[in-house]
Structure formats: structure tokens, C-alpha cells
């Protein structure tokens, strides 16, 4: 499942940059930063990308997952730091739904 | 493609009227309610669900995205009221009013805006009440929750403006609907006397304002609250 999530997240991120004015100054991989100085995204860019990823995950897995949940917002390490953390968080949430 | 309009609480009252009104204008209307809805029309889809249930709301928006690929207008009509003296207000009443009036508006606005932003166009129209600016006795909970909806409207207008989405609210006066059924006649009369025009509101008074907010030309109007009957 992790590979599938990774594929969705990477594709969404790639498409997001292709269809927006944000400049992609690094390659899309697990270490891709979503927040912080080294991220190519500002706060609104992050919001838009998270919305796109949430929709793609929900469509593909036929669930109603909310990525910006209380759990995500209050986690000691934010799942929105980089794509690796985000993918891990999505995997955990999908496992919870299916269990 | 016709305008796609989502209206919450279409089983009766103002919501039912608005659904029929916009169907008559050849719009595609999606309505939702928990209770049975008898409205049948080739351009109407009804989704059963709770406006305060996140999963129900997401399912409704997924249906719209899958079937129509866009959403032009959201009318957050679903609401419920309760009159009590503050000292005799049950906690359950507060929770119920908050869930339907505020949480429902929040959830539908959030999920609708996600779809609207794809098209760089959207109109979100929320419902407040004249009980808010009038600070009516017996309406502490209803009016304060609706004041929260007004503030939500104001902040959302700023956060969603860059996506081409406007967010406004309408505050109707008393209208002869089931919502008013429990309000004593003398209280209604006193309320009508506070208005510039001392009459019940009509459904048409509401659709007139919503027509204005949702029009293409109203793209410079956002974050506003408009009360009927001369209340300010």
C-alpha cells in the first residue's frame, strides 16, 4: 500500500507544480520539504497541495480521509514537514480505517 | 453547463423553496437533509445525511465532483432554533444548535471550497438571523451561534478570495416556517415591530438577496452580511 500512496502523492505534487506558478527548485522525492525555508511552497501553496493529495487519496482508496485532522495538527512531528512524513501519516490513517 | 447549486436542508421551508426556485431557473440543484424529501425533478439530486457529519458531507461533495465536476454555489440553509431563557437552556440544546447551525456551515463550506477552487469560481451564502444584531432575549444560544456564522463568513471571505470564491451571509426576518412554530405570537409581534417594515418576510425576499450574492457580477462583493426588514 505504501508504494501506491507514494505514487499518488508524488504524482499529485508533480501535477500541482505543473499547473501552478510555484517554481519547482528541487526533485520530488521523500525528502521534499513541504514547510520551512527550503520548501518551494508558501502557506497557501501548501494548503492547495494538501487538498489535491487528500482528494486523490480519497478517490483512489474510496475513503473520506481528512488530512488536516486534529491528530495531524497536534502531532509532535508534523506530517506536513516533508513527503516522507506525509506518506507515512496517510498510510497510518488508511490502516486505521481498514482495521 | 448549467449552474450547479448545492442547498442544505431542502426537505422543507426556505430550503425547499430555494431548491424549487433554482430548478425553475434551469439550474442543477443538489439538496440534502436528514429527513424525508419529496422533491422530485430531473435536475434535482437529493443526498440524505447529517450536515454536521464530516463523512456525510464529504460523500455529498464527492457525488457532486463525480457527477458534475464542479460546484458554483453553496447555500448553507440548514438550521434549527430554540427559544429558552438562558437559565433554563439544556446543554443538549446548545450542542444541537451548534452542530446544525455552525458545524454544518463550517463543514459544507470547507468541502465545497475545495471543489470550487478548482474552477476559480464559487459563491458561498450563509444564513444568519436578525436575532443576532437585535440580541433577542430567549435567543442567547441561537443568536450567538449565528454571530459565529457571521464571523466565519467574514474570515472565510478573506481566506477564499484568492480562489475566486465569495462568501456572504443573509439574515432573514421571521418567515412563516416550521422554525417559527415554537415562537410565541407576542414575541413574534414584538420582533416585527423592531423592523422598519413590520411584516413577515417572504421566501421571495430571501431568493432576491441570494440571486444578488450569487450573480456573476457580484464578484466584488464578499464578507458581507445583509439583514432583511431594515434591521442593521
Q: Which structural class is indicated by helix and strand composition of chain A?
A: mainly alpha
Helix percent of chain A reads 55-70%
Q: Name the helix and strand elements of chain A from N-terminus to C-terminus, one letter apiece.
A: HHHH
What is the rounded Rg of chain B?
17 Å
User: Do you know the CATH topology of chain A?
Assistant: Non-ribosomal Peptide Synthetase Peptidyl Carrier Protein, Chain A
Percentage beta strand of chain B: 15-25%
- Runs of chain A in which pLDDT lies below 50 for 5 or more consecutive residues are none
For this entry, what is the oligomeric state of its chains?
A: heterodimer
The total domain count of chain A is 1
Reading the helices and strands of chain B in chain order gives EHEEHEHEHHEHHE
Number of DSSP-assigned strands of chain B = 7
Number of strands of chain A: 0
Structural class by sheet pairing and helices of chain B: alpha/beta
Overall average pLDDT of chain A: 94
Main β-sheet of chain A, in a few words?
none
Which ranges of chain B are low-confidence, i.e. pLDDT below 50, for 5 or more consecutive residues?
A: none
> How are strands sequenced across the largest beta sheet of chain B?
3-2-1-4-5-6-7
- Compute the CA-based radius of gyration of chain A: 13 Å
Indicate the CATH class of chain A.
Mainly Alpha
Q: Quick one: overall form of chain A? A: globular
Amino acid at each position: 500500500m505504501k508504494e501506491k500512496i507514494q505514487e499518488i502523492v508524488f504524482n499529485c505534487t508533480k501535477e500541482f507544480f505543473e499547473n501552478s506558478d510555484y517554481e519547482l527548485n528541487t526533485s520530488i522525492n521523500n525528502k521534499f520539504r513541504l514547510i520551512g525555508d527550503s520548501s518551494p511552497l508558501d502557506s497557501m501553496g501548501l494548503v492547495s497541495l494538501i487538498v489535491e493529495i487528500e482528494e486523490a487519496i480519497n478517490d483512489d482508496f474510496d475513503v473520506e480521509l481528512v488530512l488536516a485532522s486534529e491528530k495531524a495538527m497536534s502531532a509532535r512531528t508534523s506530517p506536513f514537514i516533508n513527503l516522507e512524513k506525509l506518506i507515512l501519516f496517510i498510510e497510518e490513517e488508511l490502516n486505521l480505517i481498514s482495521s | 453547463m448549467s449552474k450547479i447549486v448545492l442547498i442544505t436542508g431542502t426537505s422543507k421551508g426556505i430550503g425547499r423553496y430555494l431548491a424549487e426556485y433554482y430548478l425553475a431557473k434551469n439550474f442543477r440543484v443538489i439538496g440534502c437533509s436528514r429527513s424525508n424529501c419529496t422533491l422530485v425533478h430531473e435536475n434535482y439530486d437529493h443526498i440524505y445525511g447529517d450536515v454536521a457529519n464530516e463523512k456525510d458531507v464529504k460523500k455529498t461533495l464527492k457525488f457532486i465532483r463525480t457527477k458534475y465536476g464542479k460546484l458554483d454555489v453553496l447555500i448553507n440553509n440548514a438550521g434549527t432554533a430554540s427559544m429558552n431563557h438562558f437559565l433554563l437552556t439544556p446543554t443538549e440544546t446548545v450542542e444541537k444548535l451548534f452542530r446544525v447551525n455552525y458545524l454544518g456551515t463550517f463543514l459544507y463550506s470547507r468541502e465545497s471550497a475545495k471543489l470550487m477552487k478548482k474552477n476559480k469560481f464559487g459563491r458561498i451564502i450563509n444564513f444568519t438571523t436578525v436575532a443576532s444584531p437585535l440580541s433577542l432575549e430567549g435567543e442567547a444560544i441561537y443568536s450567538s451561534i449565528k454571530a459565529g456564522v457571521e464571523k466565519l463568513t467574514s474570515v472565510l471571505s478573506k481566506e477564499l478570495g484568492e480562489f475566486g470564491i465569495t462568501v456572504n451571509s443573509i439574515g432573514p426576518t421571521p418567515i412563516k416556517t416550521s422554525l417559527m412554530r415554537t415562537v410565541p405570537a407576542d414575541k413574534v409581534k414584538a420582533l416585527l415591530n423592531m423592523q422598519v417594515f413590520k411584516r413577515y418576510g417572504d421566501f421571495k425576499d430571501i431568493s432576491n438577496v441570494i440571486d444578488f450574492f450569487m450573480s456573476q457580477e457580484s464578484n466584488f462583493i464578499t464578507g458581507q452580511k445583509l439583514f432583511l426588514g431594515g434591521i442593521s
